[in-house]
Amino acid sequence: MAEADIALIGLAVMGQNLILNMNDHGFVVCAYNRTVEKVDKFLAKEAKGTKVIGAKSLKEMVSKLKKPRRVMLLVKAGSAVDAFIDQLIPLLEDGDIIIDGGNSQYTDSQRRAKSLEEKKILFVGSGVSGGEDGARYGPSLMPGGSEKAWPHIKTIFQGISAKVNGEPCCDWVGADGAGHYVKMVHNGIEYGDMQLICEAYHLMRDALGMSEDEMSGVFGEWNKGELDSFLIEITQNILAYKDTDGTPLVRKIRDAAGQKGTGKWTAISSLDLGMPVTLIGESVFARCLSSLKDERVTASKSLKGPSTTKYEGDRKEMVEHIRQALYASKIISYAQGFMLLREAAKEYNWTLNYGSIALMWRGGCIIRSVFLGNIKEAFDKNPGLTNLLLDDFFKDAIHRSQASWRKVCAMAVTLGIPTPCFSTALAFYDGYRSGSLPANLIQAQRDYFGAHTYELLSKPAQFIHTNWTGHGGSVSSSTYTA
After folding, report:
1. Cα-flanking dihedrals φ and ψ of residue 11, to 5°?
2. Alpha carbon separation from 212 to 97, 224, 321 (Å, rounded)
3. Distance CA 268, CA 272 (A)
4. Active-site residue numbers?
5. Cβ(219)–Cβ(246) below 8 Å
6. What's the confidence (pLDDT) of residue 29?
7. Residue 67 in contact with residue 2, Cβ under 8 Å?
8. Half-sphere exposure of residue 64: CA atoms within 13 angstroms, side-chain side
9. How far apart, in Å, are the Cα atoms of 90 and each of 7, 25, 112, 225?
């Protein structure tokens, strides 16, 4: 008897929590896991007293689903997803829906959407953000793929997602891999936000000599204003947390950061598309540098920095400068993220609604923050906005914070404290607002050594080669890339 609204494969903590969330919202879910004992265990414990049903095989699971059948995968990205899709295809019919809710690479989702479409099965690749808590009580969901699937999953997805002012943090993103692409950029921005917060912490700890409790208080204050966000809130809590011996736990944690790859994918995609998403790139490199812990410890014994490493001025004043630098840099990071989304939409023929993406990130996810509401307003006002920095709200905010931002970067350089993301954000801003950059010299150099040609300001789109040495030829290069 077909009774389940949706099936979910994969009973790790995210899968279990999503099932319980769906159950809370009145949907009947059929749970399945490759190791079947996990299903029995889940039904006997976490799902006890719910309407959740289990299945011992994929065939049994499919037989319990209402049509069109909706099957959601929450398994490890990569070959496991393909293996399940291959097993499901013979059990499904035209118009049934497979949803991949894992952290898949968008190129995999593009491929899967195409091959399933040929088999008349609808594919949805959906970003899911918010961690365990979000999955249980309201994640941010970013579905993309076969648009025909959306009416059949909309009620479930928008029902279980986080809400901000009554609006669900979930909407249709776009075709094939768009959902997973948007999730990838979300994660890249998350890398940037985390690194920016760490740089603020580093400056307060080392330059201003502040204690963890003092810094926790500062982050608590910051969270009441324009920096109000999930990551600032948890930073306040982390800094206040004491180990069993009464000392701050954060001080004992080894300073070598791990990564799962989504930040790296964002940086690679930005290079592929020629978009200067410098802040996310630097945040990935900062993690790579942190992981060279043993080398850094050795280097610290012989490589000298400046003689003064402590800030001598007014501490309270500098804390406010750091707050403004953090806010301005964060604006740059989001501006770069949306530049990348715009370019990807062009490249892959996606119709992305940028205001609605900002709203999807406004609640339930790791980068949720007050200022995503301002991003939504910017795109509502001008859907064709080429860059967030050109919106009045963000332009005025940068203009207000700019003097503080420059002071902080200058102080960091003088005291020898690395601030890769504060600094690259400022360099990007100064580059973006420059009507003239020194790339004319690069073009001359390329033409000099490789006959790669250049354009004149007075005649764009006409490519010229100069015989710079008097003994070179006049033939320009189109075939080699020296």
Report:
1. -105, 40
2. 50, 19, 19
3. 6
4. 183, 190
5. no
6. 97
7. yes
8. 21
9. 16, 31, 16, 54
Evaluate whether 150 touches 157 at the Cβ level (below 8 Å).
Answer: no
Burial 108-142 (b: 16+ CB within 10 A, else e): bbbebbeebeeeebbbbbbbbbbbeebbbebbbbb
- Which of these, 131, 134, 187, lies nearest to 163 by C-alpha position? 134
> Residue 409's closest CA among 332, 306, 325, 310?
325
Q: Which two tokens stand for residue 303?
A: 């490589």
The helix (run of H) or strand (run of E) holding residue 72 is strand 70-73
* Digit-coded pLDDT (tens) for 202-261: 999 999 999 999 999 999 999 999 999 999 999 999 999 999 999 999 999 999 998 778
- Are 359 and 379 in contact, with CB atoms under 8 Å apart? no
Nearest to 33 by CA among 25, 21, 46: 46
pLDDT > 60? residue 39: yes
DSSP string, 301-355: TT----S--S--S-HHHHHHHHHHHHHHHHHHHHHHHHHHHHHHHHHHT----HH
- Please give the DSSP secondary-structure letter assigned to residue 32: E
| pLDDT tens, residue by residue, 436-461 | 999 999 999 999 999 999 999 999 99
Peptide bond into 460 cis (omega under 30): no
Nearest-angstrom CA–CA distance, 150 and 122:
10
Cα separation of the two ends of the chain: 67
Q: Does residue 475 carry a pLDDT above 80?
A: no
Residues 6+ apart with CB under 8 A from 473: 451, 467
